[in-house]
Amino acid sequence: MANIKSAAKKAQIAERNRLRNKSYKSAIATLMKNYLRALETHKEAPTAETKAELDRRLSLAFSKIDRAVKAGVIHRNTGNRRKARLSKSTKNALGTV
After folding, report:
1. CA gap 81, 5 in Å, rounded
2. CA 27, CA 23: separation in Å to the nearest integer?
3. Residues 10/11/13/16 CA torsion (nearest 10 deg)
4. Does pTM surpass 0.70?
């Protein structure tokens, strides 16, 4: 435990930031997995509904990644790389972007 008040406050802030970062990273991983699952579903049985769901999930994943970059949780290049991987998986699976 910190003996100095400012050190205790820094520890408190670090814990708050750790939990925020963990939340963002977990949400990004979940949204990416959900998108890839929806992509497989659409690939197996392409319909207008599955395409709409696929677009919605891609939009949610991109949005969360962009918010994490803006909050400083992940680096800009990491965010761009993750978005590129999602787009590439779409292109490989469906032949379009």
Report:
1. 40
2. 6
3. 170
4. yes
Q: Which domains does the chain have, with CATH numbers?
A: 5-94 (1.20.58.110)
Instruction: Please tell me the distance from the alpha carbon of residue 43 to that of residue 51, in angstroms, as a whole number.
Output: 9
User: At a CB cut-off of 8 Å and minimum separation 6, what does 71 contact?
Assistant: 20, 24
Structure tokens at 65: 């990644």
CA 86, 72, 75: angle at the middle one, nearest 5? 50
C-alpha 23/C-alpha 15 separation (Å) is 12
pLDDT-derived band at 95, boundaries 50, 70, 90? confident
**CB atoms closer than 10 angstroms to residue 58:** 21
Q: How confident is the model at residue 72 (pLDDT cuts 50, 70, 90)?
A: very high
Compute the distance between CA of residue 66 and CA of residue 96 in angstroms, rounded to an integer: 23
Q: d(Cα 6, Cα 89) in Å, to the nearest integer?
A: 47
